[in-house]
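Marked as duplicate of an earlier ticket. Keeping the data here for the record.
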Amino acid sequence: MPFQSSGEIRYFQFEHLGHGLIHGIFTRRGGVSPKPWAALNLGSSVGDDLERVRENRRLALETLGRDPASVFDAWQVHGVDVVIAEAPRPPETPHQQADAILTDRLGLTLMMRFADCVPILLHDPVRKVVGIAHAGWMGTVRGTVRCAVEAMQKRYDSSPANILAAIGPSIGPDHYEVGPEVVIQVQEAFGKDATRLLSASGGTVKFDLWAANHLLLERAGVQHIELAGLCTACATEDWYSHRAEKGHTGRFGAIIALV
């Protein structure tokens, strides 16, 4: 089953990411934060108390047998920069700005935080590399996940045909209304394919982030792609949703690590 539980903590796992790794996308259940961040908020920039966030982080990581001291995370800025993680990020060290992280190091845990944007997990079981990417509308039109795949090729000699990709819970195509400025950028980025990524109804336009990132992966040569198909805006009992909760919410975490 995709959902797993440990005590009150509930997390999602993909079925086809392969062996030799551990991963999880944590729901908001089981943490120590009060409303509006209730409960397993892993975001330190949304107004929650830092000590609660640290405790939530400890609870989540230890659920999957990961030491908080093993984590490398980044400051997500809706860009296309890819960081190669060689060692954990000490808590006193400033975050690097990036929206994709890759590593081939055993014992290192990659982590990012989300609340509607798309988590994309990557695994090359041949070269023994894992990665994680963060893509909202801006990262999607800029091609963040494409840049991550290209970095896997350049740094680790990964073949896209060997890469296993997984598109995690995020705002779904029925809820992600966008304005004309986004529509123009989607059309510029995807050309004729934009017509199947944008849907107009009742004077509004909605953007399918799932299909767009699936297409980016396909264009990059990735053949094995799993889609969670879980909408964060539809299920705020499980997920934080910036759009559905009007910005007053936390961040759920996704992790991946080689073992």
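See parent ticket for discussion. Residues 82 and 146 are 10 Å apart (CA to CA).
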